[in-house]
Amino acid sequence: MVADRYLAGLEVYRVGGAVRDALLGWPVTDVDWVVVGATPEAMQERGFKPVGVDFPVFLHPDTHEEFALARTERKSGHGYTGFEVHASPAVTLEQDLERRDLTINAMARGADGSLVDPFNGQADLAARVLRHVSPAFVEDPLRVLRVARFLARYAGHGFVIADETRALMRQLVDSGELAHLVAERVWAETEKALGESWPEHYFTALDDCGALAELMPQLAHEGPSLAETLARLQRLPEDIDHLDVVAWRWARLVEHLGAPARRQLAESLRLPRRVSRLADQVAETRGLMHAPGALDGQRTMTWLERIDAWRQGEVVASLIDLVSLEDAELAEELALAWRLATQILPQRLVEEGFKGKALGDELRRRRRRAIDDALGRAPRHAR
User: Fold this and answer.
1) Boundaries of each Poly A polymerase head domain copy (predicted)?
2) CB–CB of 89/74 below 8 Å?
3) How far is 275 from 283, CA to CA, in rounded Å?
């Protein structure tokens, strides 16, 4: 730690993910700090700005990094918020680390570089095991989702969940505590998991302990096998922005669900509109791909209207690319139909004198004719 006049005389440790990732040899992006033996008043006297709502956290006067006072937690109610927090100069570093979820997240680095590892997190890192710190794991239902999310991050490196931790995850599910998780927190963890390298492991871990049936029953009970559903998560259009990966993976996850089930799930998780909208568009595209018979103008026009192609044209190319993953010939037909349809511009019809409802009707008629022409030229086939 670089000499810092604001921290002089304080017992400060780097903790959590920064220590874990450094030991793994991974880039460290977020750093958490814990201060042992200090009071809120002492921190403010040094110029730190208090920002914590539920427990004492302070912003460094210059770097604006967050420094939390060492604390303990005691279960006092249901859910992940049902805790009483105790922070005082008497709380030790080991007590602070003991309240954490996994041993690999319960390590600290001192100012002298020494590793503080009271729960053998370094050994579990080497053994590639995700293991709970203490029996208090079962007090926080959010930890079921967090462990599953860490598996989505590390499974490809050989990590597994310890058998005893899996047992505690099932115990948490059986206790009914998951019912006290608010939708926003469930989606926040799911969103993070969908952005990890191996998101399918998040859902298999939740399914294994029974949490998937509690939180996302539509995925647990409807459609093909979960394994078949999860196989789609890595099959995405090539041209999407990396920021859209989460939305596309979610869309692929739920594309087989009927509209009522898909919307019910979106509402229960309070999904962002952009995520649920893309899921609807991908589901419509799946319906087009799997419909029997040869592609025709009416089906193509209906598909374009249902995905709101005329107002959200930027998504059409990605949806056609998605089709190409299963049916290259169909994708070629759709690409030609879309290209010719977009050449029919409203402004030209306005110049011809069309307006109002007549303009909309004529625009749709000519676009449909362009699509029919495209399919007439394309090598059509039945599916």
Assistant:
1) 13-131
2) no
3) 12
